[in-house]
Amino acid sequence: MMSTQALGERVLARLDDLAAITDEPGRITRLYLSPAHRRAADAVAGWMRDLGLDVSEDATGTVRGFLAAGKPGPQANKKLLIGSHIDSVIDAGRFDGCLGVVAGLALIEELTARGEALPFGIEVLAFGDEEGVRFPTALSSSSACSGSYRGEWLELADVHGVKLKDALRSFGCDPALIRDAAIPPGSVIGYLELHIEQGPVLEHQGDALGVVASIAGQSRFRFTIKGEAGHAGTNPMPLRRDAFAALAELSVIIERIARQGTGSLVATIGRVTVKPGAVNVVPGEVEATLDIRAGSDAPRLAAIDRIRHEADQLAERRGVKIRIERFLDTPTCPMNAELQDGLASAVGSLGESARRLPSGAGHDAQAMARAFPAVMLFVRSHDGISHNPAEYTSPTDLGLAVEAMIRFVVDLGAKVEA
Question: What is the pLDDT of residues 16-32, one digit of tens each?
Answer without folding.
Answer: 999 999 999 999 999 99
